[in-house]
């Protein structure tokens, strides 16, 4: 949607074409984010992305582009697992944190019972004096 005074969107600049007012990429790949489009293009291809965006309702496109950009970035970092690798690591961390939390609660419970029994024992001893 570039006018004569505005630069072409990152997609049109990358593809070396004129950015027309009806450009489907312009709203989602601003000129100051060329790497975002380059990553998406490398993984999904400009034609596939354009087709996908044109099939979506306008209110769904921003989320779609954000997802595509994230997946593309993860695929470039880890070509085998991409986002799935990140999800797997986070699920493992979550399982470990749950185990750690359970252990900490168990440990806290032990200290609380020692404190309670110690306080009860101290009050019994005071009553016998």
TrEMBL record:
Q: Which UniProt keywords apply?
A: Developmental protein, Nucleus
One Pfam family cited in the UniProt record for this chain: LOB
The segment(s) forming the LOB domain are 7-108
Q: Which InterPro entries match?
A: LOB
Q: What is its main location?
A: nucleus
GO cellular component annotations of the record: nucleus
Could you confirm whether the keyword Nucleus appears in this record?
yes
Q: Does the keyword NADP apply?
A: no
| Location(s) in or outside the cell | Nucleus
Transmembrane spans: none
Q: Taxonomically, which superkingdom?
A: Eukaryota
Q: Where is the signal peptide?
A: none
Q: Family assignment?
A: Belongs to the LOB domain-containing protein family.
Please report the name of this protein according to its UniProt entry.
Answer: LOB domain-containing protein
Source organism phylogeny: Eukaryota, Viridiplantae, Streptophyta, Embryophyta, Tracheophyta
């Amino acid at each position: 949607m570039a006018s004569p005074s505005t630069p072409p969107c990152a997609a049109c600049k990358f593809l070396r074409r004129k950015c027309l007012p009806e450009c489907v990429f312009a709203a989602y790949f601003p000129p100051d984010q060329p790497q975002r489009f380059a990553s998406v293009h490398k993984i999904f291809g400009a034609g596939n992305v354009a087709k996908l965006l044109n099939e979506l309702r306008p209110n769904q496109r921003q989320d779609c582009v954000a997802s595509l950009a994230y997946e593309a970035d993860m695929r470039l970092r880890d070509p085998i697992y991409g986002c799935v690798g990140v999800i797997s690591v986070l699920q493992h961390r979550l399982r470990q944190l749950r185990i750690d939390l359970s252990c900490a609660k168990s440990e806290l419970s032990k200290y609380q019972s020692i404190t309670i029994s110690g306080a009860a024992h101290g009050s019994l001893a005071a009553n016998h004096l």
